[in-house]
Amino acid sequence: MSGKLLVPYVTGGIRPDWTGYVEAYARSGADMIEIGLPFSDPILDGPTIQQASYRALRQGATVRSILDDLTEVDVDVPLIAMTYYNLVMHDPAFCADLAAAGVSGLIVPDVPIDEVDELAASATAAGVDLVLLAAPTTPGPRLAAIARRSRRFVYAVSVMGTTGERDRLADDAVRLARDLRALTDLPVLLGFGISRPAHAVEAAEAADGVVVASALMRMVLDGADPAQVGAVVAEFRAALDGVGVPVPG
Ligand SMILES: O=P(O)(O)OC[C@@H](O)[C@@H](O)c1c[nH]c2ccccc12
Q1: Which CATH number describes the domain made up of 5-131+190-242?
Q2: Contact 120/149 with Cβ under 8 angstroms?
């Protein structure tokens, strides 16, 4: 076992039985699970997660309905919510509601670090870890601040642009992960464009693990059931477990 972390994603409310994906991911070796709370204007998302968000919203998914669904889920794996600031900023109870539903982390990618104080305070008060993101163009001093203020892990965004599948890991990704590793003892997880187990292996040379979303959500949009998507999560798990382990013979 390499100890590399695997964080698969699912859009909350994508199907009536969507929590089945959460359970399948947990059984397939996920270390944490990212739950997208769909928002109508997901500016950082590429076509796959956009489509998943719209589909969930059309089916009536709300923050409330998703958190209610999650209270019924019994998994040992930490749940990390991801959403946009719009859904968070008007609701003083947002972080407390997450905690009450068993969610222990939060990613809000459109809050710049200079404006994160209020949200960070309410997350801390609720016992929710606010995960901050860094990008390949983030300047050094800012990178240090992000590394210092992030909780649970630091999210290293592998490319400038939107979420979505890519053919190969960006060169900048490995450099960013290395830079962050030098700044913090928290795990550094790479995300954006990790679409195949081979990408995860490459990413894990420098990072402590990966976030995988679009590659899984494309399957979900195409109708794959929890067991089928869980099988792909298990492939990522097996690939990461092989990192740094000598090949026998
Ligand atoms: O979809 P990808 O390329 O595998 O990347 C993960 C990413 O989608 C997921 O972590 C996430 C979904 N929406 C986001 C918005 C911003 C930052 C991160 C996210």
Answers
A1: 3.20.20.70
A2: yes
Judge whether 115 counts as a catalytic residue. Answer: no
Percentage of the residues of the chain whose pLDDT score is greater than 90: 91
- ipTM > 0.90 for the complex: yes
Residue of 17, 31, 34, 235 marked active site = 34
Q: Give 109 Cα–ligand 1 centroid separation in angstroms.
A: 9
Is 222 one of the catalytic residues? no
- Domain residue spans of the chain: 5-131+190-242
pTM across the whole model: 0.96
